[in-house]
UniProtKB/TrEMBL annotation:
It holds the Pfam family DUF2207_C. Residues 559-573 have a biased composition (Gly residues). This is Membrane protein YgcG. The lineage of its organism: Bacteria, Bacillati, Bacillota, Bacilli, Bacillales. Residues 547-573 are annotated as: Disordered. It comes from Anoxybacillus andreesenii. InterPro entries: DUF2207, YciQ-like_C. Residues 32-197 form the DUF2207 domain. It comes from the Bacteria. Keywords: Membrane, Transmembrane, Transmembrane helix. The keyword Acetylation does not apply.
Amino acid sequence: MRWRLKAFLVLFIGAIVVPFFFPSVSYAVDYSITGVQIDAYLQENGDVAVTEKHTYAFDGKFNGITREIVPKNGTKIMKLKATENGKSLRVEKEEDLYKIHRKGKEETITVEIAYTIKNGVDVYADVAEFYWPFFDDRNESSYDKMNIIIHPPKETKDVIAFGYDTAFDKEEMLADGSVLFQLGEVPSGENGDIRVAYNAALFPGATITADKMMKEEILGAKKKLYEQAVADMKMREKLSKIALFIIPIFSALLLITIIQMIIRERMKKLGVEQAIQQAFFIPDEKLSLPATILFIKGTSYQPGEAMSAALLDLVRRGYVVKMEDNRFQLVKRSGGLLKHEQVLVDFLFNEIGTGDEFTFDNLRTYMMKKKNHEKFQTQTLKWQQAIRQEIKGKKLYDQNAGTRLFLLIAGLLLFPFLFLFPIYDLFGWFTAALILAVTYFVLAASYITKSWDGWMIVKEWRFLEKGLPKLSLKEWEDLTNDEQMRGFIYGIGMKDEGIIEKNKEFVQSFKHPLEHVHNHGDALNMQTMLLIGPYASTHFHSAYKTSQSTTSSSSSSSTGGGVGGGGGGSGAF
């Protein structure tokens, strides 16, 4: 049963450590191997004459079958021939793979393969042993029913026989000294070495492999195999009892922990909601607007709209002036710019623009060159990373160190069972333990929640999203020009049509007649914002999508074996 550890390790590491996919074997031919009968006739000279009958059920067209026979060290496969109902079939050899040509469509066929294993029997002073893998873990096909019969040169009663892995405890002694291994269903990727020993006197013409006594060693190997099987069974029963205890406990602990996590977050959000005043207001700038948008938007963040909002915010704060013909002039290069604002200014004005000016014609010209697309993506990521640094510095997340440490320790306590359960065929308990362990590890790695201040920022701006579209003109007039622009810029960055349309409605109300407006300059500033906001969003969004599509399109040996390195398998083509 120990061989399963190797296979499990590969599976487990692939599933847990990295989300990658193993290349899967795809068959051009749809078939099943419904029956395999192998007769191995041991010869007095130490060779083995083998006859195999393989029954294939094909669904669709096919060109033939394959049989891989990898000889053990010191042996050789000779004189392989294939027939069907006595008719010879063409055999093509590629190293240890034999392609047997037989075209057809939706048929069930039986192909007989005959060959000789040169020096297949190891002869010692007291016994002669046939120790052979007719298939191994390299086999890509399953056998629905497999029988293997080992025939001695002469009738005898003195036989030692046993098998490993799928052949374990499947031997049956026949009257003439032959040994039948009734393997039944054999899944792909399995090992199943067989081992049969007879008196050495039955092989007078064979070359002595080693002049030593081997019978006791072979019997010892058989005894050890069965002792290990008993020990494995006892361990399996012990692990089953342990699983009945630990799986419910760890499940209950996980459920309780998750409920506590949910309650804590709900209480925190409820407290924040109760602390927020009910009258409409534009939130204070606890974060810059680009950082606020990224913090609230999260994974649905749209860089094109966010970049437009960032440019408008530079206009609002007086670092950039909107000129005629949709030109933007940089009037301040330092003195109060945040790191991400400096990154954006350098990119828009120095890289894309002419130094002190930036236009959307500059942006279109820049994006016409494919070599600039990757640079656009790189600078956008650099800008976003600088925004995240601002967010990180505000301590808007709770790390929940105590809970995460508990989750990590719980997952580690389950870890040994992820190896033990599959080794001892407890795959049901393994599945349960795996789900629990993965859940514990994922929560331990990801359980970082918004702090009180973080939820306060989210709830205040979400309150604005709901309240601004319902705002009356009088209430909007009472807001300062800066508040009006911050609310509108937030709507641009969030791509909130309700905020954008409501601001449009407010601004249009000032057009006729202007003399009724208390602060004409404010209305004109907002009217400028209203005109350039959607226009800027369209251009930045288009540039980002163009760069994204270009960069996306541009990036886009067998081990194992049975005893002595031998083995093989079956297939079709």
